[in-house]
């Protein structure tokens, strides 16, 4: 952890310095953090520009294996966030490295997914193929978009049932879209799992292969993971032993955050990417409760209680401290609905 940054095991951490100064590299998730439905999230482009100008390296880390780094970089640039392909790390790259360490150089790999997987496999010297009858040394499955044909799952099942090693870029069950939440690669993986009874090796967040790929490609020494999902971004940071910032522009809501077990508890919580440009306030013990800003939160017999006034985020931070302390190594089961309603969350 960097100098000037400290965390409290019972609640969100604090920082006397802007996070963009306390950490050398931001490892940013994309969907729900930088953009949603293809459009930039409010304050994202401006906040990232200021962080970059101040010396923070920006790396975009996505479990979506469909698009190549070139395509992702182009999209970000169009949104007003200048990006090079080398700034983008995908689960396709992580799973391709994982496969390359277990099969001979130049081996054939059956691809169930999109162009991102094929480009990543070629980068590692492997040969993408389309059929279980092409004698593949491995099967790799990644998100292939909403139009991926059902027959591709059958092709994967034929090969896996023959004993061909099976790999998955990631197992996110859902993916955000402009129209709502859609099935993700994890849902597609379940189809092949049901058909074969097999288990894939998985590379993407929150598992170590993705964190390793990110560190290898960025050279980050003091990374900060920035994400919107507790079970991928935040858990991935936990598994990698690095700090994390949860932004509330994606899928995680206040109730889910309060109920988070230790592996899903972020170091910091903020509304959006403007949180990179500021310090983070103290959350301090006060009697039987926790205080942040003008709010004090306590754990009652059946519910979390909140008194005071001030910034809603400070109230949420205080509630996190009370909830996580009450839960210990488990998940908080106390009712936080009334307290969250006071904050408009």
Total number of β-strand segments? Answer: 21
Give the integer mean of the pLDDT values: 95
Taking pLDDT < 50 over at least 5 consecutive residues as the criterion, the unreliable ranges are 1-8
Distance between the termini: 30 Å
What Rg do the Cα atoms give?
21 Å
Shape assignment: globular
Helix amount: 25-40%
Sheet-strand content, in percent, reads 15-25%
Biggest sheet: strand arrangement: 7-6-3-15-16-17
The computed structural class is alpha/beta
Summarize the biggest pleated sheet. Answer: 6 strands, parallel
Number of helices: 12
Overview features:
345 residues; alpha/beta; six-stranded parallel beta sheet; five-stranded parallel beta sheet; 21 strands; globular; disordered N terminus
């Amino acid at each position: 952890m960097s100098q000037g940054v400290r965390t409290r095991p019972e609640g969100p951490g604090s920082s006397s310095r802007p996070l963009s100064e306390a950490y050398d590299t931001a490892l940013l998730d994309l969907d729900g953090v930088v953009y949603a439905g293809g459009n930039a999230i409010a304050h994202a482009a401006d906040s990232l520009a200021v962080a970059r100008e101040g010396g923070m390296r920006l790396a975009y880390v996505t479990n979506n294996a469909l698009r190549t780094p070139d395509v992702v970089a182009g999209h970000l640039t169009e949104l007003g966030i200048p990006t090079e392909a080398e700034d983008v790390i995908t689960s396709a790259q992580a799973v391709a490295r994982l496969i390359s360490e277990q099969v001979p150089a130049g081996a054939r790999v059956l691809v169930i997914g999109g162009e991102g997987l094929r480009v990543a496999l070629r980068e590692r010297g492997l040969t993408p193929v389309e059929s279980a009858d092409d004698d593949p040394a491995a099967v790799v499955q990644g998100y292939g978009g909403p139009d991926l044909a059902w027959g591709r799952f059958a092709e994967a099942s034929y090969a896996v049932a023959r004993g061909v090693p099976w790999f998955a870029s990631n197992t996110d069950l859902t993916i955000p879209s402009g129209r709502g939440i859609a099935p993700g690669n994890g849902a597609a993986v379940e189809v092949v799992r049901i058909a074969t009874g097999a288990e894939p090796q998985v590379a993407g967040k929150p598992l170590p292969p993705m964190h390793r790929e990110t560190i290898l490609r960025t050279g980050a020494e003091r990374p900060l993971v920035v994400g919107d999902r507790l079970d991928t971004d935040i858990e991935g940071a936990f598994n990698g032993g690095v700090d994390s910032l949860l932004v509330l522009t994606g899928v995680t809501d206040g109730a889910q955050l309060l109920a988070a077990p230790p592996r899903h508890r972020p170091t910091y919580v903020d509304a959006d990417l403007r949180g990179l440009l500021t310090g983070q306030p103290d959350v301090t013990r006060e009697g039987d409760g926790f205080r942040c800003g003008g709010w004090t939160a306590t754990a009652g017999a059946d519910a979390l209680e909140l008194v005071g006034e001030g910034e809603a985020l400070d109230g949420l931070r205080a509630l996190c401290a009370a909830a996580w302390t009450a839960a210990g190594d488990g998940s908080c089961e106390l009712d936080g609905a009334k307290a969250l309603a006071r904050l408009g969350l």
